[in-house]
From TrEMBL, chain A:
This is Molybdopterin synthase sulfur carrier subunit. Residues 114-136 are annotated as: Disordered. GO terms for cellular component: molybdopterin adenylyltransferase complex; molybdopterin synthase complex. It comes from the Eukaryota. InterPro entries: Beta-grasp_dom_sf, MOCS2A, MOCS2A_euk, Mopterin_synth/thiamin_S_b, ThiS/MoaD-like. SUPFAM superfamilies: MoaD/ThiS. The modification 1-thioglycine is found at G97. C-terminal thiocarboxylation occurs in 2 steps, it is first acyl-adenylated (-COAMP) via the hesA/moeB/thiF part of UBA4, then thiocarboxylated (-COSH) via the rhodanese domain of UBA4. Pathway: Cofactor biosynthesis; molybdopterin biosynthesis.
Automatic annotation (TrEMBL), chain B:
Its main location: cytoplasm. It is found in: Cytoplasm. GO terms for cellular component: molybdopterin synthase complex. Substrate binds at H117, R118, K133, K140, E141, E142. Its EC number is 2.8.1.12. This is Molybdopterin synthase catalytic subunit. CDD domains: MoaE. Belongs to the MoaE family. MOCS2B subfamily. It holds the Pfam family MoaE. The gene is cnxH. It comes from the Eukaryota. It comes from Friedmanniomyces endolithicus. PANTHER family: MOLYBDOPTERIN SYNTHASE RELATED (PTHR23404). The keyword Manganese does not apply.
């Protein structure tokens, strides 16, 4: 499961943790170029509900660098454009056993049917953009 | 049953002089972690091992499972290691996080720091662990004996919408 190479004219969108649980996939290929400001619309179209349940609490990287999606949306046409061959990733809040940790049980039966990875689907409204800033 | 596909085999690492970070699906080696940081200049080596506990909130845990985005996690680990190395004037630092299934009692993370004196070593080790847990792109699942699977989240500060499953618990967790 090395990083998948997109076909010509496409970029890769990687999913992890709750994003994988929602999409039941580890990645998708999308047509490029695509303005970053339109990415979440494209993903929402493919997976209705994912914006609210996953994307809104996740961070985003483009070629391993965190990007501020809201900021790019505000820039409009001057914002970043995802190019063919780029590797984009949805980064859900990081797991950690701290006092602030929150847990949600998920049934075994449901997850046993998962294709890629039997992760439970649950999310938190994390401060994803703050995380992006921290990591720089 | 629950085997997550491996992103790679063996160990992936990044290093700079006196700084080493890695990810592996294999069992961790505490002696090796210490050996990576030992130096005649270091009067103290502090080794932290995060292990899988056998229960959470009285529910028996069978094992944990970790997944990651390897290149991004390595980049974040290196960034943390460099910062801690600099801030605490360490002689050396090594961080290795395990991926995939980790059984009860096994180590999921090793942090070794070498410092001229013990005080800086203790402090650096603790600070390093906190940063790793808070920031590195590694996601944990807790698998319970009674069949449940919980994915833990760092963020309990804001409201947490429960999309599926029952009510959430709270509090500490196995490492």
């Amino acid at each position: 499961m090395s990083t998948p190479k997109p076909p010509p004219g496409h970029f890769t969108l990687l999913y992890f943790a709750s994003a994988t649980s929602f999409t039941r996939r580890s990645h998708d290929f999308f047509s490029a170029p695509l303005p970053l400001s339109q990415l979440y619309d494209a993903v929402e179209k493919k997976y209705p509900g994912i914006r609210e349940k996953v994307l809104s609490s996740s961070a985003l990287t483009v070629n391993l660098d965190y990007v501020d999606v809201e900021e790019e949306v505000q820039k409009g046409e001057k914002g970043m454009v995802i190019q063919a061959g780029d590797e984009v990733a949805v980064i859900p809040p990081v797991s950690s056993g701290t006092l602030a940790a929150t847990f949600h049980p998920v049934s075994w039966e449901r997850d046993a049917s998962a294709v890629d990875q039997p992760t439970p689907y649950e999310i938190s409204s994390g401060r994803s953009r703050d995380r992006g800033v921290q990591l720089r | 049953m629950n085997e997550v596909p491996r992103a790679f085999e063996g160990e992936q690492s990044l290093s700079e002089p006196n700084i080493y970070v890695s990810l592996t699906y294999n069992a961790l080696d505490a002696s090796l972690a210490m050996a990576r940081v030992k130096s005649p200049k270091a009067g103290a080596v502090v080794l932290f091992a995060g292990c899988t506990r056998d229960s959470f909130a009285s529910r028996p845990v069978t094992h944990l499972s970790y997944s990651t985005y390897p290149p991004l996690a390595l980049r974040s680990l290196l960034s943390i290691a460099k910062a801690v190395h600099c801030e605490y004037e360490l002689v050396g630092i090594a961080i290795t996080h395990r991926l995939g299934r980790v059984d009860i009692g096994d180590e999921s993370v090793l942090i070794a720091v070498a410092a001229p004196h013990r005080k800086a070593g203790w402090r650096a080790g603790e600070e390093c662990l906190e940063r790793v847990k808070a920031r590195v792109e590694i996601w944990k699942e807790e698998w319970f004996e009674d069949g449940g699977v919980w994915m833990s989240n760092r963020d309990g500060q804001a409201g947490v919408p429960v999309v599926e499953g029952g009510s959430g618990g709270g509090g500490g967790a196995a490492e």
